[in-house]
Amino acid sequence: MGCWDKQKKWGRDSLARSFSDYITDRFYNDIVTAIQNCIDDNGDSLNLWVNNIHRIGEVEATDFHIKKMWIDDLPDMEVGIEMAVEADLEVKEADYHYDNYEECSKWFLLKCSGNLNCGLDDFCILSAEIYREKAEPKRPMSDSLVPIISKDKLDDIASEILMKYYPEALKSPIAVEPQVLAERMGLNIIIRPLTEDSSVFGQIVFCNTILDTYNADAEKVEQTEIIGKTIMVDPANFFLRNLGSVNNTIIHECVHWEKHRKAFELERLYNKDATFIRCQIVGGVKDSKVRSATDWMEWQANALAPRLQMPISPFKEKTREFIRQCRQEVGNVEIVDVMEWVIDSLATFFVVSREAAKIRLYDIGYDEVLGVFNYVDGRYVRPHSFKKGALKPNQTFSISQNDAVAESALNPELKEKLASGEYIFVDSHFCLNSDKYIQRNDIGELELTDYARHNMEKCCLVFDLVVRPVNKYGEQFFTECVLYRDAASNIVFEAHYTSTDENINVDDEIKKYNADILKVVKSLPATFSGTLNKLIEWSEMTEEKLAEEAQISEKTIQRLRNDEPDNVTLETVVQLIIGLSLPPALSDCLLRASRKDFMMTEQHMMYRMLVLTCYPKNIYECNEMLLAQGLKPLGRQNRAKS
Fold first, then answer.
1. Is 64 among the domain residues?
2. For 127-172, what is each residue's pLDDT tens digit?
3. Within a domain: residue 411?
4. CA-to-CA distance for 424 and 431, rounded, in angstroms?
5. Residue 335 shares a structural domain with residue 400
6. What's the whole-model pTM score?
7. Taking the CB of the first residue and of the last residue of the chain, which one, N or C, has fewer CB atoms within 10 A?
């Protein structure tokens, strides 16, 4: 189902239903009678708190309030019910000399059962007793009759479903065929357009009904009679997504049938017209703090479907097999360097999407998948790995250029750290500026070394990732979303610097280099021409070479060296900084001498980032970054565009 939040809709819009309210309303008299019988049977041991009664006589239950209900998810459509009820009691005086009565309350525990297939017509109160502490049910349900499933129990639940309907999938690695699973559950599958805009990928019809479907040939909505126990899949799944997503859609609806029929039947007790659950793409990700019963059903279906398609033990077995196979073919390389092939091989074998296989690998402990199949700014980020536990699920080393610009300008902690000159921005990472971690590739561009890619926690800054809401929804399914940073994803992320750099150790080489830079800083004069002269001498560059690297004419460089300029432009200063590859401490001196500073404009914020973190890059690489932001390039490239 991808990383979209899908709003569940019954046959018509409904509020969350309360099972305890329904029980109270429908079986009120039965419950009062059971409480009264318990009172009559335990008159001597009620231990009632009364003040004005000399001797307790008749005790009558006049009302009750369900304080807590424990619902046990029994086989088929049975439910086990235990409820702690606080009964309002009227206590009468037994001594005929007094004509007193007093009101008090007492807690009782009622044990009941019922079957939703018959609309609870067989509801039975099995026992009523004075309340004492009780254990939680083995298979608890919410008041809306949605199973309560913790994340650590998802694989167990998936295994139970497979053992019931598809046991062969637990014995050895095989692809679970969704059509076979549905058939074994007694479900039909219909492929038919559901909406004009393909916003609904699937739905499960619980009982016979007439539904609106879309006739693509006639280009109109028409009513269609659908029998119960039917999964409907929009063919747009095949054209807009892939076979793995189609399979996930079908199994997703199978989960609703298996785990959420009781919640549906509760809805039917309130609303006889309810007939189906519709999975509608609404975009965004919903805030987990305000999940409704239908949100929890959606979460469960989203979480269980891939676990049914890729059951944990066979999936682990196949993963190990593919890793061994790939390492035998390409050599004993790091796992991260074979993980892309492994992900695609698993996706093909289990007939799931690449994203589903990637998420499942993360579920079973392969943190390396966080560093593969990532695209930032539309560009592929080379695979990278890190020490286990170095990143939380909502963190990353890879950030977009836009976030890098914003954070380097607006985040005081990051701004201070970058001013040291110890980090440069390369391959979508802020990495320590050391030959150990950064190198030039065959075409002269900066990139991370293999050592850096395999030890990211030692050299790269960490950022917190948040999903940018695209509508009223907040965050949900966060880990899954983070793993969707692929080329086709339309989820928008924001990265924010977090000062979690305890694994980074600035080595002696960098410290010595910075100490040497400080000596140069102390030797610089106050004038612009004098500072420029000293920096050119420090760089050991000829004027001809600097003119090429900065894309400034030799005559201009000579003039700036020999005559104190009245008004040198900020663009010229930035070009000189990039051409001379000046670290921040030296570029800051040249900027001060020019009496220029950066303003809070997009162009200037980008300039600031270039001089702070991109100074080892050549001007062509810097101009690519400017153009990617829709900004003016520097030097001859700018003049050529004009």
1. yes
2. 999 998 888 888 999 999 999 999 999 999 999 999 999 999 999 9
3. yes
4. 6
5. no
6. 0.76
7. C
